[in-house]
Amino acid sequence: MIEMAQHNYIRFLHYNQGWSIRAIARHCKLHRNTVKRAIQNDNAAYVRKVPKPKPVNGDYLERIQNKLEENWKAKKEDQLTKFRMYTLLKEEGYPGSYEAFTWQTRQIEQEQGHAKKEAFLKLLALQSHLQVDFGEIQLLDQGIPRKMFFFCCKLAWSKVEFVQLYPRCSTEYFFEGLSEAFIFYGGIPRHIVFDNLTPAVKKILPGEERILQDSFLRFQSYHCFEARFCAGGKGNQKGRVERLVLYIKDNYFKPKPVFTGFASMNEKLKQQCQQRMQSQTFEGRSWEELLLEDQTQFLPLREKFESARILEAKVDTYQLVHLESNRYSVPTPYVGQRVMVKCYPFQVVIVKKDQVIAQHDRLFGKNHEHLDPYHFLSLLEKKARAYDEAKVIHDWNLPPCYAQYHQGLQAKVMSKSKGTREFIAILRLTETYGVEAIAKLLRSLSKEYRYSYQEVLSCLREQQEVKIQAPPLAEEILATYGLESYHWEKPSLQEYTCLLASGKEEVL
Asked: CA geometry: angle at 241 spanning 237 and 245, to 5°?
């Protein structure tokens, strides 16, 4: 093999100076065939016409081919890397190097047509097109890393993005994220691209056909947008939001923020999205300006969709409804009955015959209970002896004055059960007047040793009495009866005072 400078010199001597091949070979001390090749080829690069033999692959050629075919048929998450296949083959006694193995795999892939890379097309950014996805993130909740999910979406035309944080990526949070995005954008995009997430897709059929979840169909029917779904494992079909997921992880959640509650964090995320919309530009125009153009193609905004996942449950003997490894209380009359549970993103509503019987803040995690003390007071009136050990009372965390008044009431009636029942009647008043208002009364009554339900009720009525003053009569009415000039003088109480004084003298 000759160098480029020598190749250039040979061609110069032949074509410029007119030397023969024999003369050039003698002058340069090269073989005539080498000189001939240099004259015939413009490029001096060496091209191997016959592949270099790899004798180490000979005995393992069939085994390498079998391994590649098995790997092609496996699911994407189960496929092996070439280095892993090489390691396994070495354990079987393969003597070749990693380079010899990869060379052989490339030859087989080319022969079988597996070496071709997928080509892509650039797509236009169209108006009223939205891409949606979920991402996973870890935040510090009371010093403990906690896995959470963020909903994000991006408009193709105006580039405006929207982000919200949720504890899960289940149906109710999926609908809540979309509903909040519609409000943020000021309308409903006509075309929305999703991947095949479970809250929307029940089953993936060949091609673009999908069997959709009934809940998603109701949501889509309410807003009337067109839903498009990516092919399996083809996240590039919604590349804008895929890149947004990475951007959010690197810019919204780094350094790792401290979790301060979903309401406050989502409000902060909305403000960040608003700031980016106002500050970012595309081709010299702000995102906010482009959004105004996008909105002309949006569907009109409707009232917010009820983003609740509806389940059916049975109330157990402890007045509890079990939901996602947590428990929520209901009133005593519904024990043993089947009820409907509406799981909103941050609230649980329990319904019986279209009537709301209980409402709780939603619990996250496992083995937690939300006990409403007012659900158990009627049962405690019947089972007064269980009051001191009832978990719901201990979890209530009432001010200490309640326990003191309870003891005083039991001492007055000289019966623990009767005193407890009367005290439960006082606890019922807190539902109307509030715990602090009743606590203030109990402190005042305890100082005067007034222990009874009627005393508490009497004080409440006294506080609520409003003196009604009759408005003065109109002058026309007074003139009709000749009373416009009548003046009434306030009577003197001096005579009554004298009578009292004389009465005291007689007693003395």
From this structure: 130
Encoded tokens for 406: 């309870």
Q: Is 300 helix (H, G, I), strand (E, B) or coil?
A: coil
Closest CA to 294 of 164, 451, 405, 184: 184
Token output for 94: 């393969």
Whether the CA torsion 283, 285, 291, 294 is positive or negative: it is negative
Per residue in 49-95, pLDDT tens? 666 666 677 788 888 888 888 888 888 778 888 899 999 999 988 88
AA letter at 244? L
| CA distances in angstroms from 80 to 29, 57, 71, 112, 294, listed in the order given | 53, 20, 6, 18, 45
Q: Are 60 and 89 in contact (CB under 8 A)?
A: yes
Strand, helix or coil for residue 385 = helix
Is the distance from CB of 297 to CB of 166 less than 8 angstroms?
no
All residues at 6 or more sequence positions from 389 whose CB lies less than 8 Å from its CB, including other chains: none
Residue appearing with tokens 């092919």: 231
Rounded CA-CA distance 400/388 in Å is: 14
Q: Cα separation of 339 and 357, whole Å? A: 9
Q: Tell me the C-alpha distance between 55 and 61, whole Å.
A: 10
Per-residue pLDDT of 335-347, as tens digits, reads 999 999 999 999 9
Task: Render pLDDT for 276-302 as a digit per residue (tens, 0 to 9).
Answer: 999 999 989 999 999 999 999 999 999
Handedness of CA 472, 473, 474, 478 (dihedral sign): negative
- What residue type is assigned to position 381 of the chain? E
Contact 272, 163 (CB under 8 A): yes
Q: Find, among 276, 316, 296, the residue nearest to 163 by Cα.
A: 276
Token pair recorded at residue 339: 């009820």
Matching residue, tokens 């020598």 = 6
CA distance 259 to 167: 11
Strands in 142-272 per DSSP E: 144-155, 161-166, 191-194, 201-204, 210-212, 226-229
- Between CA 220 and CA 217 the distance in angstroms is 5
Which amino acid would we find at residue 191? H
